[in-house]
Each structure stands twice: as C-alpha cells, then as structure tokens.
C-alpha cells in the first residue's frame, strides 16, 4: 500500500513540484493550501507523513499551529517542516513542537526524498523486533542506524533527522575531523556554516541534558568537528 | 570673512550716531540763536518804549541836533573816576582814537574830550617839528607861538576865550584873552583852568582841565603852530556855529541798569549814533566749566561759519552797524556780529520814538559765547554718550557674533562627526532645542540624519529581506528543474537543464551571501559566551586557512602565553573568516597575509594585514557599513560588502570595535579590538 504524504504548502507551484517528485518515488501525495483544509482532512484520516510550511497563506505561524494540532492527534506521525524561513528561532520552535526534521527550501528534491525515505525507514525499524547488528557503540554512545535512535549512557537522546545524521557521521570515525561540508553531505542537506554550527550546538545541548559533563563533540577551529572518546 | 568680522563692520554703522548728533546740535544752535535774537529784540523794544515815555531823562538836549564834526561838534566821553592831570590820558580808560581836528593847513592836531562830575577834560596832541615857546610878554593878536585856543560860551551864553601856551613843559594855567572896550586884547591868567604840557619827539601834547561851571553849551578848540602860523580846529563865530558838546546823559546808565539782566550790555544812542549812556558787561558771569581740552576740536568742524558776519564796531563813543541804522530808521533789528577774536556778539536795536520822531535807539548786546558753550557742552555730552553707546554696541555685537559662531561651529563639528568611523550615526545634534534659525538648522540636520539612519538600517536589513523574499521563487525553479530531470531527458535537453541548474545555484549562493549578515545577527542573538583561548583558536584557524588558501602566505604573530577572553568562539571564527577572505581577495597571488594578536592592558588587538593596494581614504570610514563594497576586480564570488559588516557586528557583540587603515609599510590593515574579559 502506498504511503500517504500530506503536503501543506501555500505556494501552488512548489506544492505541485513536491507532490510530483514524491509521487515519482512511489508515495501517494495529498496537498493542502492552508491549515484549515489540512486539518479538516487530518481529523478524518491521518497521513503517514506530513510536510508543512510554517507560514500558510494569511497565517504567519500557521505551520506551527498545525504541527501542534497534528501532534495532538498522533504522537508518532513523522512531521517535516519545509520552509523559506531559516532563522535559528524557527528551527528551535519547530523541533520543540515535536517535528522530526526542519528543512529550508534550499533542499533539493532528491534530498527531500531521501529524508522522507529515512523517516519511513525509521518508523518501520521501530516496528520491527530488536536487531542489534546495526548498532554502533562509541563508549557511552549507542546509535541504532535502522531506528535512527541514539542513546547516551543508556538514556535515549531525541535527535531530529538532521541531527541524527550529523552525530552518526561524527561518531562513525571518532577522532577524525569532519568539516562542515562533510557533515552537510552526511545529513543530506544544503546548509550554510552557521546552520551547521547551530545544529552542533543543539546536539551538544541535548546530550548535556542527559549528562552535564558531555564534551564528546569537539570544535576544531577553522576546520570542523570531531568525536572524541 | 567670519561672521564676527562682518558684524564688526555692521557695528561701524553706529558711527552715524555722532553725525546725526552733530546735525541735531547744529539745528539746536540755530534754533537757540533765533530764540536769543527774538528775546533780545523784545527786551530792546520794551526798553525803548519805556524810555520814550521819559525823553527828558534820556536826551540832554530837548531838541534833536545833528552831530557835525566838521563844524567842531565834540563828543564828550564820560570818565569814570577823575584822571590825574599829568599830560597823559592813559588813566581816562577810553580806548577810542583821538579825533583829528580839521585843518586848512598841514598841521596835524588831535583832540579828545572827557567829562567827570565836576570837570571837562581835554587832551590835545599836536605834531609840531619845532617848538615855539610863549614870549614873556604876549600880544595875543600879533605874536606867533605854539598855542591851543579855547573859545567857549559860558553857561549864561556870554563868550569867553582862553589859550594855553608855555615856555617850558609842565603844569600851566590858561590865559584868558579879554578884549577891552578899546578893542585891544589883553591877557590875564585864569588859574581855574589848568593843563599839563609835555613835549615829545613828534611835537607836544597836553591834558587840560576845565571846571564845568565855566562851560556853557559850546566849546571850540584851535591849535596854532608858532613857527608856520598854521592852524587846525575851530574858533567861535557869531552867530555861534558848531562847537557843540554832545554829552552823555547823567543817570541814564543807572536807569538802563534797572532794565537789563547780567550778561547784557545796554546802550542808548541818539540819532547821531552817539552813546548817551551805557551799562552792563558782556561777560559778567562764569559759565562754570569752560570749554574742555577736547571741545575746541568740536568747534573746529562743528561751528557755523561766521567768517562772513560783520565785525562789531569798536568805536567806543558811537555804535554802528546794520541794526543801529535800521533802528534809527525806525525799525527794530537784530544782527549777529563777530568781535576781533572768535567771539560772537548779538546786537538788537530798537528805536526810541518821541513825538513821532526817532530820537535815538536802545541797543542791547549779548555774547554769543553762551550759546557756543551750551552747544559745546551738549556736544561734549553727546559725544561721551555716543562713544559709550558705540562701545557697548560693538562689544555686544562682538559677543553676539562670537556666540553665534560658537554655536554654528558646534553644529558644524557635530555634523562633521555625525557619521562615525564605524558607520554609526549619531542622531542628536547640539542646539536642536533652540528656537531660532540655528535651532531649526540643527533640527533639519537631525531629520536628515534620521533619514540617513533609516536608510542605512534599511540597507542593513535589505540583504536579509531580499534573500528571504527570493528564496521561494528560486525554490520553485530548482524543484521544477529537479522534477524535469526526473522525467528522463534526452541528452541534448539535459545540458539546458544543467545550465539552468548552474544558474539557479549561483542565484542560490548570491542569496545566501545576501542573507549572511541577517543570519549572523540572528546567531548573535542566540550566542552564548564562554571563556576560551584566543591564541589556540588563532593557531587552529590559521592552520586551516593555510590549507584553504594555498595561494597566499600566512604569518602569525602572537604573544607566547594563552590569551583567554570571554565570548563566542564560533562568531570570532566567522569574523576571522571574513577578515581572511577579504585579505585574500586583495592580496596578490603569493602575497603575505599577516595575522597578529597583541595584548594591551585592557584589550586584545587582532590585526589582519594584506599586501594589496591601499584603500582610498574616503572609503576607510565606511568599509564596515552594510552593502559598502570596495572591490574593483571581478571574481566568481558575489560580493555585497557584507563581510566587513559582519566583522563589525561580531566585534560590537564582544564589546569591541573594528577599524581599517593603510599600513605604513604598504597594504591595508584591518584591526579588531576585543576587550580582555
């Protein structure tokens, strides 16, 4: 059965482009121009994944509201914010509302498709029984590549998809400096240096919420970051 | 020319004040003069009318007589105090010249008569080359000697004849000549009539004294030269002709004195212009402060031109002039005269009319000097006041001009420095609270600066806004291209898609560059500060730059010890990136980029120097503004002049500041000051 993806986007050309690209990947797409129409539909039938723009027609933060309502309907539904807004604050707000990823519109369609696929893969992996073969362990860190789940000292760390991939890329080769471009490639995303910096900052903070002494991600000034054990 | 000097020139216009004052003083003087004329004329009229009522007290002769000097009429000067009979008339106190006696021959003889209460005095001066003394036995009819004959009518009208002659100078008595019944003249001494005879080189002179009791209405004087027999003067005739004595009227001076004020001289003349009585002094009172040393020069250029005024008559026995002749013709008249010195005299004459006939005139004279003094004092005060006024005006204007130019100067220097080196704009101007034009100018500046500030704020956010607004349409293009590619294209179609994608990619990087400043501002808002080692950061970063920019040589100069500061190392790195990118852009291939860190008492100084061309001076202060670009070359990367703006943002976030300068050894150096902690 085809996965149903809901695209909430007020720009018709973009909406249709996204829908066309994802349909080509074998997904079924439903598009909505605003929050009201989307919500009407979601109440009766939840999609398998939602891609939401933040500003929707006359509602500057309509996407955030929609995310909140959608999260209330389902705790597990993957939600991706796809927006022209790239401010730090928007990203933090979006992820805090329970979105699984926050993408700017710079992302290319193949990248978008990769993300969508990754999220579905994670959902599938979560539903499958435990398979420890895919788990990468680095000291206190354990990364389940299938389920895209991360634990530190046994406690789960809730990372967005981008953040997960960044941590994954760093931890796979501890001690190796990964520059920003490498991290972007790993995360299937085109970001500027600033955004990588803030992603790293956010990742550190999430680990530090579990372990205040966390300092496994080291900044190499002028080059990038590395994982130290 | 400064405002101060301009206003000083304007202040010179106040010099018109003394000029106007002088004009006023001149007008005043004229008005006063007319007033004085009128007043004096009125007084003269009044006195003349008063005197007309009592002709007996004014005119000694009941009928009007014409004075005929050619017939021997003699004016008798009143003498004040009895002179000493010594042959000289110095003690008579009469400045008038002697009257020359008419002579048919060449004999020159002069005569003057004076009178006291009791005596008539005669002074006779004769030019005589040779003295012929009186013989011991005199035959008056036939002997020839130097003699002075007096013929007179006694008070009872009977004639009498005397003569003076002497053998030697000295006091002599008169000799009377009596013609007996036999017709022979005999002489007798008359001791009541005395004279003092003196010789001098020109001839002789004598002073004679006759008791009034001997003298009637007429007296003739004749001088005879003994050697030549020539005569001068007059003798008695029958019927009597000439030889009349014109006397001053006794008591008239006292009478006049009751009419006049001090400072006025009053004279009564008869129809012959001869003085009948006179009283008063022209300069009896001191006017207090005399003309000061500075006043004479006022007169020099202020005085009314008096040179064409008639001279006052100086003859003491009679008065002359236009006013006198007018009065004797029946018309009151006043005129200004000048005396020999620079003094002015006002003379007013009014006729005395008795029984329809002009018998004489009253002449009042007043010194004009009072007026001059009045005018001088007014001018003096005027000059003092105007000098003070001018001084005050000049000082005030100068002070005012100074104040104005200080204010304008303050405004100008504020306007000069309104836009700081780092591009910050100070919005408030001095003087903007003032209500005058300078205040309006300051407020105009403020409005201008506010608009400039808005504009630069707009420029600052323009990049972010543009990048945001253009992102959606660009995404449409890119996603459409993605879709197009996925549809499966022919090879020849694919190359166009690739071109379109390249273009979109470039557009993407342009937008990204444009939005860079906005993102830095964003991350500054989120930035967290912590302590880190600036030295370690530099070592690491410059190492990365060496790898990243193989075309340039990097030189790092740092203090040996760790340099801890508090801040956001990520932002510092971004700032460094921009500084290095900028340096690399301007550095020639293989050029040197010097990174230097130094530490002073309260700040670190991070300097990045390149080998490139110097920056134009006009650009130096503006480099750190948003969207200010000074690159001249072209490369493939888009430049919006945001790099150095980001440097400034980061420096300011850390409480420091950024500046640019041309290094003395060539190239440009960009310096960032960062506080120690």
Describe this protein with a few key phrases:
heterodimer; A: alpha/beta; 5-stranded parallel β-sheet; 4-stranded antiparallel β-sheet; 12 strands; 21% strand; globular; B: 677 residues; alpha+beta; 12-stranded mixed β-sheet; 5-stranded antiparallel β-sheet
Give the number of DSSP strands of chain B: 24
What share of residues of chain A is helical?
40-55%
By helix and strand content of chain B, what is the structural category? alpha+beta
Helix-strand topology string of chain A: EHEHEHEHEHEEEEHEHHEE
Task: Determine Rg of chain A (CA atoms, Å).
Answer: 18 Å
Global shape of chain B: rod-shaped
What number is the mean pLDDT of chain B? 83
Total helical elements of chain B: 14
Oligomeric status: heterodimer
The termini of chain A sit apart by 44 Å
Rg over CA atoms of chain B:
61 Å
Structural class of chain A: alpha/beta
The number of E-state strands of chain A comes to: 12
The most extensive interface, with participating residues per chain, is: A-B, 32 and 36 residues
What shape does the CA trace of chain A take? globular
Q: Could you tell me the strand content of chain B as a percent range?
A: 15-25%
Give the end-to-end Cα distance of chain B, rounded to a whole number of Å: 52 Å
Give the low-pLDDT segments of chain B: 284-291
Word description of this protein:
The complex is a heterodimer of chains A (229) and B (677). Helix content of chain A is 44%, strand content 21%. The mean pLDDT of chain A is 85. Chain A has 229 residues and is α/β, with parallel strands linked by helices. In chain A, helix 6 (161-172) packs across helix 7. In chain A, strands 2-1-3-4-5 form a five-stranded parallel sheet, sandwiched between helices. Chain A has a four-stranded antiparallel sheet with strand order 6-7-8-9, with helices on one face. Chain A has a three-stranded antiparallel sheet with strand order 10-12-11. Chain A is globular and about 50 Å long. Chain B is of the alpha+beta class and 677 residues long. Helices cover 37% and strands 24% of the residues of chain B. Chain B has 14 helices and 24 strands. Chain B has helices at residues 3-12, 16-52, 55-58, 252-257, 295-302, 322-328, 369-416, 437-486, 491-514, 516-526, 534-548, 569-586, 617-620, 643-653, and strands spanning 74-78, 99-100, 108-115, 119-127, 147-153, 159-164, 170-179, 185-199, 203-211, 219-224, 231-233, 245-246, 264-270, 275-279, 333-338, 344-354, 357-367, 530-533, 553-557, 564-567, 592-599, 603-610, 657-662, 668-675. In chain B, the strands form four sheets. In chain B, strands 1, 2, 3, 4, 5, 6, 7, 8, 9, 10, 11 and 12 form a twelve-stranded mixed sheet that branches.
């Amino acid at each position: 059965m085809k996965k149903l993806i809901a695209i909430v986007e007020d720009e018709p050309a973009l909406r249709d482009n996204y829908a066309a690209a994802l349909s080509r990947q074998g997904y079924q797409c439903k598009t909505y121009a605003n929050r009201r129409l989307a919500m009407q539909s979601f109440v009766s039938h939840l999609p398998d994944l939602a891609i939401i723009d933040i500003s929707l027609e006359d509602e500057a933060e309509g996407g955030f509201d929609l995310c909140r309502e959608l999260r209330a309907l389902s705790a597990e539904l993957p939600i991706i914010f796809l927006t022209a807004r790239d401010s730090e604050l928007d990203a933090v707000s979006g992820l805090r509302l329970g979105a699984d990823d926050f993408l700017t519109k710079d992302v290319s369609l193949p990248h978008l498709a990769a993300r969508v696929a990754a999220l579905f893969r994670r959902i599938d992996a979560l539903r499958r029984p435990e398979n420890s073969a895919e788990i990468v362990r680095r000291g206190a860190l354990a990364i389940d590549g299938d389920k895209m789940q991360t634990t530190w000292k046994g406690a789960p760390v809730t990372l967005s998809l981008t953040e997960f991939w960044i941590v994954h890329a760093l931890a796979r080769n501890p001690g190796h400096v990964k520059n920003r471009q490498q991290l972007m490639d790993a995360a299937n995303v085109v970001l500027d240096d600033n955004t990588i910096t803030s992603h790293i900052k956010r990742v550190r903070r999430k680990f530090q919420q579990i372990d205040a002494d966390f300092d496994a991600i080291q900044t190499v000034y002028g080059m990038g970051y590395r994982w130290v054990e | 020319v400064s405002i101060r000097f301009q206003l000083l020139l304007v202040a010179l216009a106040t010099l018109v004040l003394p000029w106007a004052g002088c004009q006023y003083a001149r007008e005043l003087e004229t008005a006063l003069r007319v007033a004085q004329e009128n007043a004096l004329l009125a007084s003269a009229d009044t006195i003349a009318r008063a005197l007309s009522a009592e002709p007996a007290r004014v005119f000694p002769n009941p009928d009007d007589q014409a004075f005929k000097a050619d017939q021997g009429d003699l004016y008798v000067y009143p003498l004040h105090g009895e002179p000493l009979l010594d042959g000289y008339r110095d003690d008579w106190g009469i400045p008038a010249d002697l009257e020359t006696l008419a002579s048919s021959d060449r004999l020159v003889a002069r005569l003057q008569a004076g009178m006291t209460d009791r005596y008539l005095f005669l002074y006779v001066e004769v030019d005589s080359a040779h003295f012929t003394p009186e013989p011991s036995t005199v035959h008056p009819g036939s002997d020839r000697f130097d003699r002075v004959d007096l013929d007179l009518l006694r008070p009872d009208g009977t004639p009498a004849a005397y003569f003076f002659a002497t053998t030697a100078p000295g006091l002599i008595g008169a000799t009377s000549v009596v013609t007996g019944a036999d017709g022979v003249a005999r002489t007798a001494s008359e001791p009541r009539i005395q004279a003092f005879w003196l010789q001098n080189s020109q001839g002789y002179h004598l002073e004679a004294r006759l008791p009034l009791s001997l003298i009637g209405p007429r007296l003739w004087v004749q001088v005879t030269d003994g050697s030549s027999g020539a005569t001068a003067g007059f003798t008695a005739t029958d019927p009597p002709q000439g030889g009349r004595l014109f006397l001053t009227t006794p008591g008239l001076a006292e009478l006049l004195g009751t009419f006049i004020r001090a400072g006025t001289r009053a004279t009564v003349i008869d129809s012959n212009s001869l003085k009948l009585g006179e009283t008063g002094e022209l300069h009896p009172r001191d006017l207090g402060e005399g003309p000061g040393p500075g006043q004479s020069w006022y007169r020099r250029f202020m005085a009314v031109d008096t040179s064409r005024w008639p001279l006052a008559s100086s003859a003491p026995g009679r008065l002359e002039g236009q006013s006198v002749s007018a009065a004797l013709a029946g018309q009151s008249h006043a005129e200004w005269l000048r005396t020999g010195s620079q003094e002015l005299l006002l003379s007013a004459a009014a006729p005395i009319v008795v029984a329809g006939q002009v018998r004489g005139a009253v002449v009042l004279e007043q010194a004009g000097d009072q007026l001059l003094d009045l005018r001088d004092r007014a001018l003096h005060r005027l000059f003092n006041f105007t000098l003070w006024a001018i001084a005050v005006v000049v000082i005030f204007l100068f002070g005012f001009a100074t104040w104005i130019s200080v204010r304008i100067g303050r405004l100008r220097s504020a306007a000069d420095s309104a836009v700081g080196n780092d591009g910050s704009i100070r919005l408030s101007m001095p003087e903007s609270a003032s209500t005058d034009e300078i205040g309006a100018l300051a407020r105009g500046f403020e409005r201008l600066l506010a608009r400039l500030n808005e504009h630069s704020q707009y420029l600052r956010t323009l990049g972010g806004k543009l990048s945001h607004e253009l992102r959606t349409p660009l995404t449409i293009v890119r996603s459409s291209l993605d879709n197009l590619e996925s549809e499966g294209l022919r090879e020849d179609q694919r190359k166009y898609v690739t071109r379109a994608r390249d273009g979109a990619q470039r557009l993407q990087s342009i937008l990204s560059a444009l939005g860079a400043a906005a993102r830095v501002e964003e991350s500054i808002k989120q930035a967290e500060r912590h302590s880190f080692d600036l030295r370690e950061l530099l070592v690491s970063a410059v190492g990365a730059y060496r790898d990243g920019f193989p075309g340039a040589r990097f030189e790092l100069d740092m203090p040996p010890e760790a340099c801890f500061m508090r801040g956001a190392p990520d932002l510092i790195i971004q700032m460094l990136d921009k500084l290095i990118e900028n340096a690399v852009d301007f550095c020639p291939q293989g050029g040197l980029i010097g990174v230097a860190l130094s530490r002073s008492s309260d700040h670190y100084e991070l300097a990045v120097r390149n080998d490139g061309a110097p920056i134009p001076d006009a650009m130096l202060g503006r480099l750190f503004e948003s969207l200010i670009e000074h690159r001249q070359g072209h490369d493939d990367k888009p430049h919006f002049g945001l790099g150095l703006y980001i440097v400034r943002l980061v420096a300011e976030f850390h409480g420091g500041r950024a500046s640019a300068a041309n290094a003395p050894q060539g190239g440009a150096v960009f310096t960032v000051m960062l506080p120690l902690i």
